[in-house]
Inverse folding.
């Protein structure tokens, strides 16, 4: 049961099939199939069963997945620890909300790179819910998220507190439509709650990008809730206006989250240093 085989097994689970796993592992489909068959033969159990076109885990497969993730994570930690004995090197996989990536992350990464030029940074954007799940599964080392972070095995620190505002086309009345991020975004949840509190019924329109949402708002297709700091610096700032919302909707902390097993990973400590500076600067500007 070598690490390559375990990595292949996890890839099949994550990608939902052999073909997609082969693409993600940069190999051919036959290699993936062969490794899985050898793994099943060595354990004497079936790890998957087919349901339509999708592969699902058997109970034995679910047990192995938990151990496989832990073993692969231990391998990464060991590699990073050895590399960091001589110099601050290795890889740090960072997840981020799109709004944080657009406004805050470049400065954080620049400071990190200036201090530790040999640290390889991998960045993945997504919704807060998807990023939290990825950290729990050890697919990311840490992530910047908003919303509920009280989850099993998750540690967190508040980085800053964003103020959400209602955004609409400048000089226009409220169109009866709320434009939302996709499912899993903390800002989406607050926008839905704002809509429910209005006397009129609001339709919901979903978009996947920050620019797409604000572009639609700027031409009067709907309203949205967004951090005021994003609006100040976006290309549509001259075409939109902001309105304050209730305090319970406006308050939106951003957290750095990480798995409790990652607390001593050198890369995580390195990342938190520029964030401490960022937090102090944010507090001074309020």
């Amino acid at each position: 049961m070598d690490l390559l085989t375990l990595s292949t097994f996890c890839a099949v689970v994550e990608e939902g099939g052999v073909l997609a796993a082969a693409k993600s592992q940069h190999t051919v489909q036959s290699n993936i199939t062969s490794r899985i068959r050898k793994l099943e033969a060595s354990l004497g159990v079936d790890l998957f069963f087919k349901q339509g076109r999708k592969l699902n885990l058997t109970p034995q497969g679910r047990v192995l997945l938990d151990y496989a993730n832990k073993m692969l994570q231990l391998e990464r930690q060991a590699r990073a620890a050895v590399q960091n004995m001589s110099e601050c090197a290795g890889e740090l996989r960072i997840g981020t909300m799109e709004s944080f990536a657009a406004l805050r992350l470049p400065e954080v990464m620049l400071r990190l790179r200036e201090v530790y030029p040999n640290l390889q940074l991998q960045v993945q954007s997504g919704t807060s819910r998807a990023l939290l799940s990825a950290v729990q599964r050890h697919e990311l080392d840490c992530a910047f998220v908003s919303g509920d972070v009280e989850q099993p095995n998750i540690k967190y620190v508040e980085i800053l507190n964003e103020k959400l505002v209602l955004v609409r086309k400048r000089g226009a009345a409220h169109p009866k439509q709320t434009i939302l991020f996709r499912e899993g975004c903390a800002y989406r949840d607050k926008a839905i709650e704002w809509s429910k509190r209005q006397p009129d019924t609001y339709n919901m329109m979903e978009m996947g990008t920050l620019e797409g949402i604000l572009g639609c708002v700027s031409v009067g297709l709907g309203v949205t809730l967004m951090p005021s700091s994003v609006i100040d610096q976006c290309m549509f700032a001259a075409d939109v206006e902001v309105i304050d919302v209730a305090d319970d909707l406006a308050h939106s902390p951003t957290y750095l989250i990480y798995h409790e097993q990652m607390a001593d990973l050198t890369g995580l400590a390195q990342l938190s240093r520029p964030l401490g500076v960022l937090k102090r600067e944010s507090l001074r500007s309020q």
About this structure: The chain has twelve helices and eleven strands. The domain at 3-79 is CATH 1.10.10.10 (Arc Repressor Mutant, subunit A). Residues 159 and 276 are 7 Å apart (CA to CA).
